[in-house]
Amino acid sequence: MDQGLKMHRNISFLIHILAWILIGAVLFLLGPLSWNTTLPMEFWYRQLTLMVILVAFFYTNKDIFVPLLLFKGKTWFFLLLIFGLCFALMYAMEYFENLIHLPELMHKAFHPDDNKPFKPKRDYIDIFMLLVLLLAAGISTSVAAVQKWQADEALRRQLDQQRISSELSYLKAQINPHFFFNTLNNIYSLTSIDVESARIALHKLSRMMRYVLYETEKDQTLLSKEIGFIKDFIELMKLRISEKVKIQLDIAENFEDRVVAPMLLLPFVENCFKHGVSSRQPSIISIKIHAQENVLTLETSNKIVPKNPGSPESGQQGIGLANTKRRLSLLYHHKHELTIDDQNPENEYHVTLKINLA
Fold first, then answer.
1. Are residues 210 and 261 in the same domain?
2. What angle do CA 282, 284, 287 make, to 5 degrees?
3. How many folded domains does the chain comprise?
4. Mean pLDDT, rounded, of the chain
5. Which DSSP helix (H) or strand (E) runs through 29?
6. What's the pLDDT tens digit per position in 161-216?
7. A single Gene Ontology molecular function, please (predicted)?
8. Together in a domain, 292 and 325
9. What's the pTM?
10. What beta strand segments (E) does the chain contain?
11. Are the beta carbons of 180 and 202 closer than 8 angstroms?
12. Domain of 105, in residue numbers
């Protein structure tokens, strides 16, 4: 990483050098060299001095004035300082030109046959010089603003990535330990009734744990693995619920292997079982998952069943449901649509999630 950063800085430095060479050639060399006359050496001293002043003014403004004044909200002080410096540098260059007698030498170079005594102009403002200085100030301010925007954007992306990683870790930690504990108990009970079913359930549980341990370490996983994880979860949940709970599943058997962020669907599915299962009354859970072209769609619905106050799961909102909403907004900001309806006469909880995986 350090080597890459060093290379980036070297390339940036080289770009700056080449840019100044190009600017210097266009502003201070091409024009004078096209003049059909022999220019005095003092003229080139003046050009070199102006180039040095522009470079110094450019980086002083970009690295000092803009960060310390403009970015701190001192806009008027910044503007007054820049305009004041532009006029000061303009007059300083005029003084330097008069000091080396450049106006008189240039007059002789362009009018060698003019024997009249040289009369210097009494212009108080050199428009060209002032425009060049203001141009340097404007470009350096723009460069500083763009660099700040890029740095802020890079920092925002880094913070978002850290936030996504931390939230995924939190999500994994939130996978209900009661689910694993009760599932193991159910599997243990099955061993004395149906060994083959217990073996299959244990295999599904191990696949789920492997997915949580390894697939979630990546930023993305295959959609088929994510759906397989959901299916294993539903099958294991069936071991815990009574015959009063009717599960309606509509999950496509084959999914085109696109990539998706891991564990985005599980919180909504888990929420159905956590809040839609009643031990006294019949209840229905409906889960539909399908993909059409690039759009993955999840639809769930369940009765809203109040939890007992003493239940270990009462007061929880499912496996990171709010957390998952944040992950969706970060990972698929303009590419997902989430609709939750929990205010209806049927007292049902409906979720529709659409994600564009293109």
1. yes
2. 160
3. 2
4. 78
5. none
6. 777 667 666 655 555 565 677 778 878 887 887 888 888 888 888 888 888 778 77
7. phosphorelay sensor kinase activity
8. yes
9. 0.55
10. 221-222, 245-251, 259-260, 283-292, 295-303, 336-341, 348-356
11. no
12. 35-158
SS3 356: strand
Tokens of 101: 């007698």
Instruction: For 196, list phi and psi in degrees, rounded to 5.
Output: -65, -45
Question: Residues for the chain: how many in total?
Answer: 358
Closest CA to 283 of 243, 230, 235: 243
Task: Tell me how far apart the alpha carbons of residues 264 and 336 are, in angstroms, rounded to a whole number.
Answer: 12
Q: Is 288 left (phi over 0), alpha (psi -120 to 50) or beta?
A: beta
Residue 183, judged by CB atoms within 10 A of its CB (0-12, 13-18, 19+), counts as: buried
Which DSSP symbol is given to 216?
A: G
Say if residue 283 is in the same domain as residue 209.
yes
Question: From CA 47, how far away is CA 24, in angstroms rounded?
Answer: 9
Percent of the chain exceeding pLDDT 90 equals 7
The rounded distance, in Å, linking the Cα atoms of 292 and 256 is 10
